[in-house]
Amino acid sequence: MKAKHQRLILVLLAVVALIGAGLLAAYALQDQASYFYTPSDIADKKPEAGTAIRLGGMVEEGSIQRSADGVTVQFIVQDGTAQQLVTYTGITPDLFVEGSGVVADGRLDANGMFVAETLLAKHDENYIPRELEGIDMTAGQHKTETLVQ
After folding, report:
1. Considering the entire predicted model, what is its pTM?
2. C-beta neighbour count of 63 within 10 angstroms
């Protein structure tokens, strides 16, 4: 067999091995993937109960209800056109408040309620830490020393 044919066979084997590795990785990760839904998407598409999904939207004003156990919370996520009732058991993030954005990983139960396993609270780009609230960062000249003047 000529060297040219040997190289061609090696290249073809490498391509087949790469495709096989990609398919194997995709198959292994398919159970770990969660699709992003808004409340409107859930109302339209109704994913199967028990399927891992990610729900995103805004926490509706006046909807947060905390249970007597202190760790279970129910609230409504809305996107302007639809609403989805969510329940979560655990410590809520500090930024989790009514009117703020939230992303929740979880599953729909048989009754259509979203049972969240994790909550991520979103904040706007105007976030300022408590320690810096009273400081005007644009006021005054801040002199910095550099090597180039």
Report:
1. 0.63
2. 16
